[in-house]
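FAQ
Q: What does a multi-component entry look like?
A: The components come first, one per line:
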Amino acid sequence: MRYWLFKSEPSEWSWADQVAKGEDGEEWDGVRNYQARNFMREMKLGDLGFFYHSQKDKEIVGVVRICAEAHPDSTTDDERWDCVDIEAVAPMPKSVTLADIKAHEGLQDMPLVKSPRLSVQPVTKEQWDTICEMGRYGK
DNA sequence: GCCAACGTTGGC
DNA sequence: GCCAACGTTGGC
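Then the predicted structure of the entire assembly, as tokens:
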């Protein structure tokens, strides 16, 4: 099982939009970046991810699960682009802000901090556990 | 195949 | 709203 982070601008696609989709999930489409695509190709059914709001909020607001592995992006005919489907699992009881992450020992190496523009990123088990604790995301 | 130009993203 | 960083595109 691996962990990931999905970044979205809330005005484009927010956590509320994701939750509204329920168990059907939604394509994480529109990604036109090779690194991000490659990460999506590595994702397995059941992997978990953080849902991050960029721009105004800059915080992790919820947890999602991969509910379909990589398949062609339906928003383009360009066969280079694949995407996965994700479904909302639960909100973060306490959202974890970018400032929190930057201030926290051991989290400064996250791509979120180092490569803020990468829209899909891997998260290590240690980082995952730390952030869950910060967000009071329980077992 | 290189590299300059351009567009986009996202933090501040 | 600005600007820096980065990735992609396209001309050569």
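Q: Is there any commentary attached?
A: Sometimes. For this entry: The longest helix of chain A spans residues 125-134.
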